[in-house]
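Handoff note, outgoing to incoming analyst
You'll be picking up this chain. Sequence as last confirmed:
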Amino acid sequence: MFELMQSVLLIFIEIMCCKIFYETFGKVRYKGWINVIQFILLLGSVCLLAFGFSENFVIRQIANILTLSAFMLWHVKISLKKSFALAVLFDAFLLAMDYLVYLIIDWLALDSNLSEQLYGSGAVLAYLLVKVILFFFILVIRKQFGKKSIEMMLDTEWLRLLFFPVFTIAVIYAMLSVFEHVQTVEQANLLAVIAFGMVGMNIVVFYLINDIVEREMKLHENKVFQIQAKNQLEMYKSISENFDNQKRKTHEYKNQISCIESLLEKKQYSKLEEYVKKIYGSMNNEPDAINTNNVIVNAILNTKYHEAEEKGIVFVFRVNDLSELKMKDEDVVTILSNLLNNAIEACELCENNKVIKFKFIQEDDMIIIAVKNTFNYDVIYENGEIKSTKTSSVDEHGVGIKNIIKTIEKYAGSYVIEDKNKEFFFSIIIPA
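Most recent structure output, in case you need it:
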Protein backbone atom coordinates (compact mmCIF):
# COMPACT_ATOMS: atom_id res chain seq x y z
CA MET A 1 0.00 0.00 0.00
CA PHE A 2 2.83 2.38 0.91
CA GLU A 3 4.57 1.60 -2.39
CA LEU A 4 1.33 2.41 -4.29
CA MET A 5 1.02 5.74 -2.48
CA GLN A 6 4.62 6.55 -3.35
CA SER A 7 4.00 5.81 -7.03
CA VAL A 8 0.86 7.99 -7.08
CA LEU A 9 2.68 10.84 -5.34
CA LEU A 10 5.52 10.65 -7.88
CA ILE A 11 2.95 10.90 -10.69
CA PHE A 12 1.30 13.79 -8.80
CA ILE A 13 4.63 15.66 -8.80
CA GLU A 14 5.05 14.98 -12.53
CA ILE A 15 1.58 16.39 -13.26
CA MET A 16 2.32 19.50 -11.17
CA CYS A 17 5.54 20.04 -13.14
CA CYS A 18 3.60 19.54 -16.40
CA LYS A 19 0.98 22.04 -15.27
CA ILE A 20 3.60 24.69 -14.45
CA PHE A 21 5.38 23.94 -17.75
CA TYR A 22 2.23 24.49 -19.81
CA GLU A 23 1.18 27.59 -17.87
CA THR A 24 4.51 29.13 -18.89
CA PHE A 25 3.37 29.22 -22.52
CA GLY A 26 -0.34 30.00 -22.19
CA LYS A 27 -3.04 31.52 -20.03
CA VAL A 28 -5.18 29.30 -17.78
CA ARG A 29 -8.69 28.94 -19.17
CA TYR A 30 -10.60 28.42 -15.94
CA LYS A 31 -10.19 29.21 -12.25
CA GLY A 32 -11.60 27.50 -9.19
CA TRP A 33 -13.21 24.07 -8.98
CA ILE A 34 -13.08 23.27 -12.68
CA ASN A 35 -9.31 23.62 -12.47
CA VAL A 36 -9.23 21.08 -9.60
CA ILE A 37 -11.49 18.69 -11.54
CA GLN A 38 -9.17 18.94 -14.57
CA PHE A 39 -6.17 18.08 -12.41
CA ILE A 40 -7.88 15.10 -10.70
CA LEU A 41 -9.05 13.66 -14.03
CA LEU A 42 -5.57 14.07 -15.53
CA LEU A 43 -3.93 12.47 -12.48
CA GLY A 44 -6.34 9.53 -12.64
CA SER A 45 -5.78 9.06 -16.38
CA VAL A 46 -1.99 9.11 -16.10
CA CYS A 47 -2.09 6.67 -13.16
CA LEU A 48 -4.27 4.25 -15.18
CA LEU A 49 -1.85 4.47 -18.10
CA ALA A 50 1.17 3.98 -15.84
CA PHE A 51 -0.26 0.89 -14.10
CA GLY A 52 -2.29 -0.52 -17.01
CA PHE A 53 0.44 -0.33 -19.67
CA SER A 54 3.49 -0.88 -17.47
CA GLU A 55 4.58 -3.79 -19.69
CA ASN A 56 4.15 -1.95 -23.01
CA PHE A 57 6.51 1.03 -23.12
CA VAL A 58 5.65 2.36 -26.60
CA ILE A 59 1.86 2.32 -26.16
CA ARG A 60 2.18 3.90 -22.72
CA GLN A 61 4.33 6.78 -24.03
CA ILE A 62 2.04 7.48 -26.99
CA ALA A 63 -1.06 7.36 -24.80
CA ASN A 64 0.65 9.57 -22.20
CA ILE A 65 1.52 12.22 -24.81
CA LEU A 66 -2.02 12.25 -26.23
CA THR A 67 -3.54 12.46 -22.73
CA LEU A 68 -1.30 15.32 -21.65
CA SER A 69 -1.89 17.29 -24.87
CA ALA A 70 -5.69 16.83 -24.62
CA PHE A 71 -6.02 17.77 -20.95
CA MET A 72 -3.59 20.67 -21.15
CA LEU A 73 -5.40 22.00 -24.22
CA TRP A 74 -8.48 22.07 -21.98
CA HIS A 75 -6.51 23.71 -19.16
CA VAL A 76 -4.45 26.33 -21.07
CA LYS A 77 -5.34 28.66 -23.95
CA ILE A 78 -3.00 27.35 -26.66
CA SER A 79 -3.36 25.77 -30.08
CA LEU A 80 -3.69 22.02 -30.59
CA LYS A 81 -0.34 21.81 -32.40
CA LYS A 82 1.42 23.71 -29.63
CA SER A 83 -0.20 21.53 -26.96
CA PHE A 84 0.95 18.36 -28.72
CA ALA A 85 4.48 19.72 -29.21
CA LEU A 86 4.72 20.68 -25.53
CA ALA A 87 3.44 17.23 -24.52
CA VAL A 88 6.14 15.56 -26.63
CA LEU A 89 8.78 17.87 -25.16
CA PHE A 90 7.66 17.27 -21.58
CA ASP A 91 7.57 13.51 -22.14
CA ALA A 92 11.12 13.74 -23.43
CA PHE A 93 12.07 15.53 -20.20
CA LEU A 94 10.51 12.70 -18.19
CA LEU A 95 12.42 10.06 -20.16
CA ALA A 96 15.65 11.97 -19.62
CA MET A 97 14.89 12.14 -15.89
CA ASP A 98 14.18 8.37 -15.80
CA TYR A 99 17.54 7.71 -17.42
CA LEU A 100 19.14 9.99 -14.83
CA VAL A 101 17.57 7.87 -12.07
CA TYR A 102 19.30 4.75 -13.37
CA LEU A 103 22.61 6.64 -13.54
CA ILE A 104 22.20 7.81 -9.93
CA ILE A 105 21.30 4.33 -8.69
CA ASP A 106 24.26 2.83 -10.53
CA TRP A 107 26.61 5.59 -9.39
CA LEU A 108 25.65 5.26 -5.71
CA ALA A 109 25.51 1.45 -6.00
CA LEU A 110 22.14 1.29 -4.24
CA ASP A 111 21.51 -2.23 -5.51
CA SER A 112 24.44 -3.73 -3.61
CA ASN A 113 23.97 -5.28 -0.16
CA LEU A 114 20.38 -3.98 0.14
CA SER A 115 17.19 -5.91 0.62
CA GLU A 116 14.46 -5.59 -2.01
CA GLN A 117 12.38 -3.30 0.21
CA LEU A 118 15.32 -1.04 1.07
CA TYR A 119 16.31 -0.89 -2.59
CA GLY A 120 12.74 0.18 -3.46
CA SER A 121 12.88 3.02 -0.93
CA GLY A 122 16.29 4.08 -2.24
CA ALA A 123 14.92 4.14 -5.79
CA VAL A 124 12.04 6.36 -4.62
CA LEU A 125 14.57 8.84 -3.19
CA ALA A 126 16.41 8.77 -6.52
CA TYR A 127 13.15 9.44 -8.38
CA LEU A 128 12.34 12.30 -6.00
CA LEU A 129 15.80 13.77 -6.60
CA VAL A 130 15.29 13.89 -10.38
CA LYS A 131 11.73 15.24 -9.98
CA VAL A 132 13.13 18.18 -8.03
CA ILE A 133 15.78 18.64 -10.74
CA LEU A 134 12.93 18.64 -13.30
CA PHE A 135 11.05 21.19 -11.18
CA PHE A 136 14.17 23.39 -11.02
CA PHE A 137 14.65 23.10 -14.79
CA ILE A 138 11.01 24.11 -15.44
CA LEU A 139 11.37 27.14 -13.14
CA VAL A 140 14.37 28.26 -15.22
CA ILE A 141 12.29 27.83 -18.41
CA ARG A 142 9.47 29.83 -16.81
CA LYS A 143 11.91 32.61 -15.95
CA GLN A 144 13.12 32.82 -19.56
CA PHE A 145 9.85 32.31 -21.45
CA GLY A 146 7.16 33.01 -18.87
CA LYS A 147 4.28 35.50 -18.80
CA LYS A 148 4.85 39.21 -18.43
CA SER A 149 3.56 39.08 -14.88
CA ILE A 150 6.66 37.05 -13.97
CA GLU A 151 8.80 39.99 -15.12
CA MET A 152 7.72 41.82 -11.97
CA MET A 153 9.96 39.47 -9.95
CA LEU A 154 13.49 40.80 -9.57
CA ASP A 155 16.50 38.57 -10.20
CA THR A 156 17.24 38.48 -6.49
CA GLU A 157 13.67 37.30 -5.81
CA TRP A 158 14.08 34.56 -8.41
CA LEU A 159 17.31 33.44 -6.74
CA ARG A 160 15.47 33.19 -3.43
CA LEU A 161 12.74 31.12 -5.09
CA LEU A 162 15.30 28.81 -6.71
CA PHE A 163 17.00 28.35 -3.33
CA PHE A 164 14.21 25.97 -2.23
CA PRO A 165 14.65 23.37 -5.01
CA VAL A 166 18.45 23.65 -4.82
CA PHE A 167 18.34 23.05 -1.06
CA THR A 168 15.95 20.11 -1.56
CA ILE A 169 18.24 18.58 -4.20
CA ALA A 170 21.18 18.86 -1.79
CA VAL A 171 19.25 17.28 1.11
CA ILE A 172 17.88 14.34 -0.95
CA TYR A 173 21.33 13.76 -2.43
CA ALA A 174 22.73 13.66 1.13
CA MET A 175 20.05 11.10 2.04
CA LEU A 176 21.06 8.92 -0.92
CA SER A 177 24.76 9.19 -0.15
CA VAL A 178 24.22 7.76 3.35
CA PHE A 179 21.42 5.38 2.38
CA GLU A 180 23.70 2.35 2.51
CA HIS A 181 23.88 2.85 6.29
CA VAL A 182 20.08 2.59 6.66
CA GLN A 183 19.31 -0.65 8.44
CA THR A 184 15.52 -0.94 8.58
CA VAL A 185 12.61 -0.39 6.20
CA GLU A 186 11.04 2.01 8.70
CA GLN A 187 14.10 4.26 8.58
CA ALA A 188 14.03 4.18 4.76
CA ASN A 189 10.32 5.04 4.71
CA LEU A 190 10.92 7.93 7.11
CA LEU A 191 13.53 9.34 4.74
CA ALA A 192 11.07 8.96 1.85
CA VAL A 193 8.32 10.80 3.81
CA ILE A 194 10.73 13.64 4.63
CA ALA A 195 11.78 13.86 0.97
CA PHE A 196 8.15 13.90 -0.25
CA GLY A 197 7.37 16.63 2.29
CA MET A 198 10.24 18.79 1.08
CA VAL A 199 9.19 18.38 -2.57
CA GLY A 200 5.61 19.28 -1.62
CA MET A 201 6.85 22.41 0.17
CA ASN A 202 8.65 23.45 -3.02
CA ILE A 203 5.38 23.30 -4.96
CA VAL A 204 3.48 25.14 -2.21
CA VAL A 205 6.12 27.91 -2.04
CA PHE A 206 6.06 28.28 -5.83
CA TYR A 207 2.27 28.76 -5.99
CA LEU A 208 2.32 31.02 -2.96
CA ILE A 209 4.86 33.32 -4.63
CA ASN A 210 3.02 33.04 -7.95
CA ASP A 211 -0.23 34.18 -6.29
CA ILE A 212 1.59 37.12 -4.68
CA VAL A 213 3.07 38.13 -8.05
CA GLU A 214 -0.34 37.94 -9.78
CA ARG A 215 -1.89 40.03 -7.02
CA GLU A 216 0.87 42.62 -7.40
CA MET A 217 0.27 42.58 -11.15
CA LYS A 218 -3.41 43.39 -10.62
CA LEU A 219 -2.47 46.25 -8.29
CA HIS A 220 -0.01 47.45 -10.94
CA GLU A 221 -2.71 47.31 -13.63
CA ASN A 222 -5.08 49.28 -11.37
CA LYS A 223 -2.36 51.89 -10.88
CA VAL A 224 -1.79 52.09 -14.64
CA PHE A 225 -5.54 52.54 -15.16
CA GLN A 226 -5.64 55.33 -12.58
CA ILE A 227 -2.76 57.17 -14.25
CA GLN A 228 -4.37 56.80 -17.68
CA ALA A 229 -7.70 58.01 -16.29
CA LYS A 230 -5.94 60.99 -14.72
CA ASN A 231 -4.25 61.88 -18.03
CA GLN A 232 -7.52 61.55 -19.95
CA LEU A 233 -9.34 63.66 -17.39
CA GLU A 234 -6.74 66.40 -17.76
CA MET A 235 -7.05 66.21 -21.55
CA TYR A 236 -10.87 66.38 -21.55
CA LYS A 237 -10.73 69.24 -19.06
CA SER A 238 -8.33 71.09 -21.39
CA ILE A 239 -10.62 70.48 -24.39
CA SER A 240 -13.59 71.76 -22.42
CA GLU A 241 -11.68 74.88 -21.36
CA ASN A 242 -10.53 75.49 -24.94
CA PHE A 243 -14.09 75.12 -26.18
CA ASP A 244 -15.35 77.64 -23.61
CA ASN A 245 -12.53 80.01 -24.54
CA GLN A 246 -13.37 79.64 -28.22
CA LYS A 247 -17.03 80.51 -27.55
CA ARG A 248 -15.93 83.53 -25.55
CA LYS A 249 -13.49 84.64 -28.26
CA THR A 250 -16.16 84.25 -30.96
CA HIS A 251 -18.45 86.55 -29.02
CA GLU A 252 -15.60 89.03 -28.50
CA TYR A 253 -14.67 88.97 -32.19
CA LYS A 254 -18.24 89.92 -33.13
CA ASN A 255 -18.06 92.88 -30.79
CA GLN A 256 -14.60 93.84 -32.09
CA ILE A 257 -15.74 93.68 -35.73
CA SER A 258 -18.73 95.87 -34.87
CA CYS A 259 -16.42 98.36 -33.21
CA ILE A 260 -14.05 98.39 -36.22
CA GLU A 261 -17.02 98.85 -38.55
CA SER A 262 -18.26 101.78 -36.44
CA LEU A 263 -14.82 103.47 -36.46
CA LEU A 264 -14.60 103.05 -40.23
CA GLU A 265 -18.01 104.60 -40.73
CA LYS A 266 -16.97 107.57 -38.59
CA LYS A 267 -13.60 107.71 -40.42
CA GLN A 268 -11.71 107.78 -37.11
CA TYR A 269 -8.63 106.13 -38.62
CA SER A 270 -6.18 107.01 -35.85
CA LYS A 271 -8.38 105.40 -33.20
CA LEU A 272 -8.97 102.49 -35.55
CA GLU A 273 -5.21 101.96 -35.95
CA GLU A 274 -4.73 102.11 -32.18
CA TYR A 275 -7.59 99.68 -31.62
CA VAL A 276 -6.29 97.19 -34.22
CA LYS A 277 -2.81 97.23 -32.64
CA LYS A 278 -4.38 96.55 -29.27
CA ILE A 279 -6.35 93.59 -30.66
CA TYR A 280 -3.24 92.23 -32.41
CA GLY A 281 -1.27 92.40 -29.17
CA SER A 282 -3.95 90.49 -27.29
CA MET A 283 -4.04 87.84 -30.03
CA ASN A 284 -0.36 87.08 -29.42
CA ASN A 285 -1.27 86.06 -25.86
CA GLU A 286 -3.99 83.64 -26.89
CA PRO A 287 -3.74 80.20 -25.23
CA ASP A 288 -3.73 78.17 -28.47
CA ALA A 289 -0.06 78.59 -29.33
CA ILE A 290 0.16 75.20 -31.09
CA ASN A 291 -2.13 74.05 -33.89
CA THR A 292 -1.70 70.65 -35.54
CA ASN A 293 -5.25 70.34 -36.95
CA ASN A 294 -5.85 67.57 -34.41
CA VAL A 295 -8.10 68.44 -31.47
CA ILE A 296 -6.62 65.92 -29.04
CA VAL A 297 -2.99 66.74 -29.83
CA ASN A 298 -3.74 70.48 -29.67
CA ALA A 299 -5.40 70.13 -26.27
CA ILE A 300 -2.47 68.24 -24.76
CA LEU A 301 0.34 70.28 -26.31
CA ASN A 302 -1.20 73.65 -25.52
CA THR A 303 -1.90 72.61 -21.94
CA LYS A 304 1.64 71.35 -21.42
CA TYR A 305 3.13 74.32 -23.27
CA HIS A 306 1.49 76.82 -20.92
CA GLU A 307 2.28 74.66 -17.90
CA ALA A 308 5.97 74.66 -18.90
CA GLU A 309 5.85 78.40 -19.57
CA GLU A 310 4.46 79.09 -16.08
CA LYS A 311 7.32 77.07 -14.55
CA GLY A 312 10.01 78.95 -16.43
CA ILE A 313 10.75 76.11 -18.84
CA VAL A 314 11.68 76.86 -22.45
CA PHE A 315 9.44 74.73 -24.70
CA VAL A 316 10.75 74.36 -28.26
CA PHE A 317 8.51 72.36 -30.55
CA ARG A 318 8.21 71.21 -34.13
CA VAL A 319 4.88 69.88 -35.43
CA ASN A 320 3.12 69.53 -38.74
CA ASP A 321 -0.37 68.69 -39.98
CA LEU A 322 -1.67 65.77 -37.87
CA SER A 323 -5.23 65.83 -39.15
CA GLU A 324 -4.74 62.36 -40.70
CA LEU A 325 -3.34 60.81 -37.53
CA LYS A 326 -4.79 57.28 -37.19
CA MET A 327 -3.73 56.53 -33.62
CA LYS A 328 -6.53 56.14 -31.09
CA ASP A 329 -7.16 59.17 -28.90
CA GLU A 330 -6.44 57.27 -25.67
CA ASP A 331 -3.08 56.10 -27.04
CA VAL A 332 -2.14 59.63 -28.08
CA VAL A 333 -3.02 60.78 -24.56
CA THR A 334 -0.93 57.99 -23.01
CA ILE A 335 2.19 58.81 -25.01
CA LEU A 336 2.07 62.61 -24.99
CA SER A 337 0.86 63.08 -21.42
CA ASN A 338 3.46 60.72 -19.94
CA LEU A 339 6.32 62.05 -22.07
CA LEU A 340 5.60 65.70 -21.34
CA ASN A 341 4.69 65.15 -17.67
CA ASN A 342 8.04 63.42 -17.14
CA ALA A 343 9.91 66.12 -19.08
CA ILE A 344 8.29 68.98 -17.15
CA GLU A 345 8.87 67.22 -13.83
CA ALA A 346 12.54 66.68 -14.72
CA CYS A 347 13.10 70.29 -15.81
CA GLU A 348 11.51 71.60 -12.61
CA LEU A 349 14.37 70.07 -10.61
CA CYS A 350 17.01 71.84 -12.71
CA GLU A 351 18.45 75.04 -11.22
CA ASN A 352 18.98 76.52 -14.67
CA ASN A 353 18.92 75.54 -18.34
CA LYS A 354 15.32 74.31 -18.20
CA VAL A 355 14.64 73.25 -21.77
CA ILE A 356 12.22 70.84 -23.46
CA LYS A 357 12.60 70.12 -27.17
CA PHE A 358 9.59 68.36 -28.63
CA LYS A 359 8.81 67.00 -32.10
CA PHE A 360 5.61 65.39 -33.38
CA ILE A 361 5.41 65.00 -37.14
CA GLN A 362 3.84 62.61 -39.64
CA GLU A 363 5.69 62.16 -42.90
CA ASP A 364 6.78 59.39 -45.29
CA ASP A 365 4.27 56.94 -43.75
CA MET A 366 5.93 57.38 -40.35
CA ILE A 367 4.86 59.05 -37.12
CA ILE A 368 7.83 60.54 -35.29
CA ILE A 369 7.55 61.66 -31.68
CA ALA A 370 10.63 62.82 -29.81
CA VAL A 371 11.28 64.61 -26.53
CA LYS A 372 14.61 65.89 -25.27
CA ASN A 373 14.78 67.56 -21.88
CA THR A 374 17.41 68.63 -19.37
CA PHE A 375 17.49 66.86 -16.01
CA ASN A 376 19.42 66.87 -12.76
CA TYR A 377 18.91 63.44 -11.13
CA ASP A 378 19.90 59.80 -11.49
CA VAL A 379 18.21 57.52 -14.03
CA ILE A 380 17.77 53.99 -12.67
CA TYR A 381 18.27 51.14 -15.14
CA GLU A 382 17.46 47.47 -14.56
CA ASN A 383 18.25 44.67 -17.03
CA GLY A 384 19.08 47.26 -19.69
CA GLU A 385 15.71 49.00 -19.32
CA ILE A 386 14.67 52.15 -17.48
CA LYS A 387 12.97 51.31 -14.22
CA SER A 388 12.37 54.79 -12.85
CA THR A 389 14.00 58.10 -12.04
CA LYS A 390 14.71 59.67 -8.69
CA THR A 391 11.96 62.27 -8.74
CA SER A 392 9.14 63.18 -6.42
CA SER A 393 6.86 60.67 -8.19
CA VAL A 394 9.13 57.67 -8.68
CA ASP A 395 6.36 55.10 -9.08
CA GLU A 396 4.32 57.15 -11.53
CA HIS A 397 7.39 57.98 -13.59
CA GLY A 398 8.38 54.31 -13.97
CA VAL A 399 4.82 53.24 -14.72
CA GLY A 400 4.45 56.09 -17.22
CA ILE A 401 7.47 54.92 -19.23
CA LYS A 402 6.14 51.35 -19.26
CA ASN A 403 2.77 52.61 -20.50
CA ILE A 404 4.48 54.48 -23.33
CA ILE A 405 6.47 51.40 -24.37
CA LYS A 406 3.38 49.20 -24.22
CA THR A 407 1.51 51.62 -26.52
CA ILE A 408 4.45 51.75 -28.95
CA GLU A 409 4.53 47.95 -29.15
CA LYS A 410 0.77 47.95 -29.79
CA TYR A 411 1.42 49.83 -33.08
CA ALA A 412 4.53 47.77 -33.96
CA GLY A 413 6.69 50.84 -33.44
CA SER A 414 10.22 51.26 -32.12
CA TYR A 415 11.85 53.59 -29.63
CA VAL A 416 15.21 54.81 -28.36
CA ILE A 417 15.94 56.01 -24.83
CA GLU A 418 19.20 57.77 -24.02
CA ASP A 419 20.58 60.03 -21.34
CA LYS A 420 23.78 61.94 -22.06
CA ASN A 421 25.31 65.13 -20.72
CA LYS A 422 22.33 65.71 -18.42
CA GLU A 423 19.86 65.47 -21.31
CA PHE A 424 17.18 62.77 -21.47
CA PHE A 425 16.10 61.70 -24.93
CA PHE A 426 13.04 59.60 -25.84
CA SER A 427 12.44 59.03 -29.57
CA ILE A 428 9.52 57.06 -31.03
CA ILE A 429 8.84 55.90 -34.59
CA ILE A 430 5.43 54.37 -35.41
CA PRO A 431 4.22 53.22 -38.84
CA ALA A 432 1.47 55.60 -39.99
